[in-house]
Fold this protein.
Amino acid sequence: MHTKALRAPRRPTRIRVVATALLLMLAACTQLGNARNPDAGNPVPIQGAPRAQLSIGYSTLYQEAGGIPKLKWILMFKDKPEETGRVINDLVSYYQQLADTLQRLSKQYPAVRIDAVTMSGIEGDERKAIGEDLAKDFAPLVGKTGVKFERETLLMFYNTLNEQRHLTGVMIGLETDPGLRKFLETTKAEMEERYTKVGALLDRRYFTQ
């Protein structure tokens, strides 16, 4: 009888917190500025309405998509296997394109807001502090290196993609504009594809089968 050996747990809760904290730290200036100045810009839609929830969704996607490319300067200094480096570079480029697309959509569609407050100011401060602490793990000279760094980085992307593919799925159910719905469907499919690819790489190279 063939039995698979136990493999290291992916620790989705901890890694999701790491990913969220790092991304929110990178987008902290905009996020916290909005939280402390709720009257800045356009009025926030009535809380709980579908469009208000979509505004939070689009803003969350934009803040995270815009935050990930800022990790590039950290990731580029770490030696990585060719396949792992190629996957990470693809993800960084993808998120940069996604952030650019969301900026364009926010100008093309008045209903798309990418500056909505997604959490309270105190929670944002907390996540920023956590992110600053955990970012030390990714520091070019003193942070983690080798297989441990590669695994942690891929797990960050893996769990971020998992959260975002479900977020876009919920948003599809709320979005009534055909053009925006198509964008969300395409984005969800792209995230599903990359989620599967990262998961396969983790299983093949970084976890014992």
Remarks:
- Residues 12-204 form a domain with the Ferritin fold (CATH 1.20.1260).
- Residues 146-174 form the longest helix (29 residues).
- The two ends are 15 Å apart (CA to CA).
